[in-house]
Design a protein that fits this description.
Layout: E1 2-7, H1 12-22, E2 28-35, H2 39-49, E3 53-56, H3 59-71, E4 77-80, H4 82-90, E5 96-99, H5 107-115, E6 119-122, H6 125-142, E7 145-148, H7 151-159, E8 170-177, H8 187-190, H9 195-198, H10 208-216, H11 218-231, E9 238-242, E10 248-254, E11 259-263, H12 269-277, H13 308-319, H14 323-339, H15 345-359, H16 367-388
Helix pairs in contact: 2-3, 4-5, 5-6, 6-11, 6-14, 10-14, 11-13, 13-15, 14-15, 14-16, 15-16
The structure holds nicotinamide-adenine-dinucleotide (NAD) and magnesium ion.
């Protein structure tokens, strides 16, 4: 029996993880469910999955959840605050930690799971993008088992020799990108797009932050950085190819010309089930590909002029140091400003570009220095938006 902690349990990945776990009650038991502030959805999940602990970062919300669960006779104990998130992630009573908090907010609890040597199913790409080498060094040092849930990286994990432990004969990785909802928009019309349009992803149903990142292609930029750290490959050996159908989830090209790809319907329950059971295979509940119904699979190059975020991310990865942390922090601030209608869609790339130019060179040898870079970049981006924002659609 594997005991599972889900960080970010109320989100898109968290809920889909619980759907997969519920298919296999003989294999998995839910140890802890953690979320940010929304106590009602967490209450429902607790009543259904009966975890030992529920954690809310927000203390007031935790008090409401505690009263509610007590009244209903639930045995789940409610904890609160930052430290509690780390405690459930590193507990000796948990075997698997699903890291599905969005943004740099997930760094500390995810690192706590790494340092406790858990099997970590990583969805929270920002945690790895920001901490990079420090994260991967900790994985090795503490014998943690890191399995990527991001569909592209999970695909590559499945296609590499020895599930990524070897790069024997590997020439390059091909990360596929759907191109997002604005793939065919002109540069001019991208100036006018709305929040509702950005949130309408053609293939995947995801949380708001990653949906906007998919529309700007920053998601693919973050994934490029993620892939470089996960698989220890230089950025020059990772290419991005736009594949609007999202059936080929990514590919590995070998020296002899062979290309291995992982295919599936665009449903995160497949990589989640893969990560939970690996190296075994279990049912995920995802629909299967009907090859006869697939009309065509197409591939095209990404347009870095209309989608500069992908280029900015590659530049940040090349620059090294704190650049990826700065890129991520400015992007988090800019995406939130866009969602709040305080910044235009194209303003996101402009804001990140400015932060990289002004804060990209700060040091980052320790976690403290990384968090400093994150703070400096957030402040810079906030200032930039107050000077250049205000373009509301
Ligand atoms: P979401 O917005 O749907 O859910 C985010 C979860 O994180 C929620 O449970 C929320 O309560 C929690 N959370 C947010 N801020 C927090 C904080 N400060 N402290 C504690 N908890 C906090 O997001 P999502 O779409 O599920 O994405 C989660 C992560 O997985 C992201 O890093 C995203 O890039 C990655 N990812 C998601 C998908 C997808 O299909 N949704 C695919 C690949 C990767
Ligand atoms: Mg992805």
């Amino acid at each position: 029996m594997q005991r599972v902690t889900v960080l970010g349990a109320t989100g898109s990945i968290g809920v889909q993880t619980l759907e997969v776990l519920a298919l296999h009650p003989e294999r998995y038991q839910v140890f802890a469910l953690a979320a940010f502030t929304k106590w009602q959805p967490l209450a429902e999940l607790c009543l259904k999955h009966r975890p030992r602990y529920a954690v809310l970062r927000d203390a007031a919300a935790a008090a409401l959840l505690r009263n509610h669960l007590r009244e209903l006779g639930s045995q789940t104990e409610v904890l609160e605050g930052d430290r509690a998130l780390e405690q459930v992630a590193e507990s000796v009573e948990t075997d698997v930690v699903v890291a599905a908090i969005v943004g740099a907010a997930g760094i500390r609890p995810t690192l706590a799971a790494v340092r406790a040597g858990k099997r970590i199913l990583l969805a929270n790409k920002e945690a790895l993008v920001v901490t990079g080498k420090l994260f991967m060094d900790a994985v090795r040092q503490h014998g943690a088992e890191l399995i990527p849930l991001d569909s592209e990286h999970n695909a590559i994990f499945q296609c590499l020799p020895e599930s990524g432990r070897s790069l024997n004969g590997v020439r390059r990785l091909l990360l596929t990108a759907s191109g997002g909802p604005f793939r065919n928009h002109s540069a001019e019309s991208l100036q006018q797009v709305t929040v509702a349009e950005a949130l309408k992803h053609p293939n995947w149903d995801m949380g708001p932050k990653i949906s906007v990142d998919s529309a700007t292609l920053m998601n693919k930029g973050l994934e490029l950085i993620e892939a470089s750290w996960l698989f220890a490959l230089d950025e020059s050996r990772i290419d991005v190819v736009v594949h609007p159908q999202s059936v080929v989830h990514s590919m590995v090209e070998y020296e002899d010309g062979s290309v291995l790809a992982q295919l599936g319907t665009p449903d995160m329950r497949t990589p989640i089930a893969c990560g939970l059971a690996w190296p075994q295979r279990i049912a995920s509940g995802a629909p299967r590909i009907d090859f006869l119904a697939l009309s065509q699979l197409t591939f095209e190059a990404p347009d870095l002029e209309r989608f500069p975020c992908l280029h900015l991310a590659r530049e940040a990865l090349r620059a090294g140091g704190a650049a990826s942390a700065v890129l991520n922090a400015a992007n988090e601030v800019a995406v939130q400003a866009f969602l709040d209608q305080k910044l235009s869609f194209m303003g996101i790339a402009a804001c990140v570009d400015d932060a990289l130019q002004h804060c990209g060179a700060v040091a980052c040898r320790s976690l403290e220095e990384i968090f400093d870079a994150d703070r400096i970049s957030r402040a810079h981006a906030g200032d930039w938006i107050s000077r250049h924002g205000g373009v509301v659609h």
